[in-house]
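Slide 14.
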Amino acid sequence: MSVIRVENLSKSYGKVKALRQVGFEVAEGEIFGVVGPDGAGKSTLFNILTTLLLPDTGNAYVFDKDIRKDYLEIRKHIGYLPGTFSLYPDLTVEENLIFFATMYQSSIRDNMVLIKPIWKQLLPFKKRFAGKLSGGMKQKLALCCALIHKPSLLFLDEPTTGVDPVSRKEFWEILRSIKNQGITVVVSTPYMDEATLCDRIALLQEGAFIKMDSPANIINGFQGNLVTLQTEDIFSLLNLMQHCGLNCTFYPYGEHLHVIFYDSLETALPKFEVFLQENNVTYQDIRQIDPNIEDCFISIVEKGGDASR
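Slide 15: predicted structure.
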């Protein structure tokens, strides 16, 4: 059963096309990730699906309800954690939770089972003003407030942006427990490593989905041979690579250079090593590696997307 159905959705802000004929479905009970860089259109899509913004063209249905006609009914059954902290900073942690429970005509006691794992971490700070919490604690409080009416569908717009690595890990463990409670989760993120934690992902670039599948299928469908090497002067090497004359895609990856060769390694790698030697490039640890989601995203973008998605 699909809890979300989107058909040819488009939205522009003046001359800027935020969404370009987006279409997809989200199945009941899955964690569906929308993955893409800043400015790709993630927040615009979420604002439309949560009935806060109208599209220019296309249709969207949540629980088979039209976002234009049935927005009041849709809002009763969804929770939304926006990309910016939207709780009341001058209310305490406890007061924020009470306020949102009251607004949704819900009961903290009845739904405490759902938020208990998160709330236990917030209990020592329940009298602290929300605006004085750390980034990770703010997000956990916002998640409690979004869940306090036990929604059937939860939207999370970049919930771990600006959060420390430990809190990011904890947050995703919480999402897994939420899924086990029967709640469908739609989450956006600019972090490619988080994509592997979703059941399915859609790669969003410049307002359009360029690939949609499970993380495993996307990685298994990677085309090309991925090689990594380490060099002390990555920026000079990037400039040199524009003239290497090989059938490849290249990009920095921390202190490493990743190169995707579209010819066989038996042919391409010796030519590449000759190129490095001729240009006096000092490097080490050159080897073939398995791609991750970020490598797949870059490869798909370079190839102009995948219409078969």
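Speaker note: The domain at 2-218 is CATH 3.40.50.300 (Rossmann fold).
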